[in-house]
Amino acid sequence: MLHETWKDNTPIKKIEVIHTDAQKFTVADMLTVGKQYDVINETEEYYQIVDNSGLVGGYFKTYFKEV
């Protein structure tokens, strides 16, 4: 399964968090505004990144800008 090897994959690119104002879920615990993260996988709506927990999580692209 693809998601089992994501942590070992080479990052695709870097992104920076521009806000954590989520309408439905709390993301402020896992993302830090102004911090840059490595993108492990990308879909049309989401980035999969190694977040503050040290694990790979999926987040809407609206929280980020490309570096």
From TrEMBL:
Q: Which InterPro entries match?
A: DUF6501
Superkingdom, natural source: Bacteria
Q: Which Pfam families match?
A: DUF6501 (PF20111)
Q: What is this protein called?
A: YozC
Which source organism does the UniProt entry give? Staphylococcus nepalensis
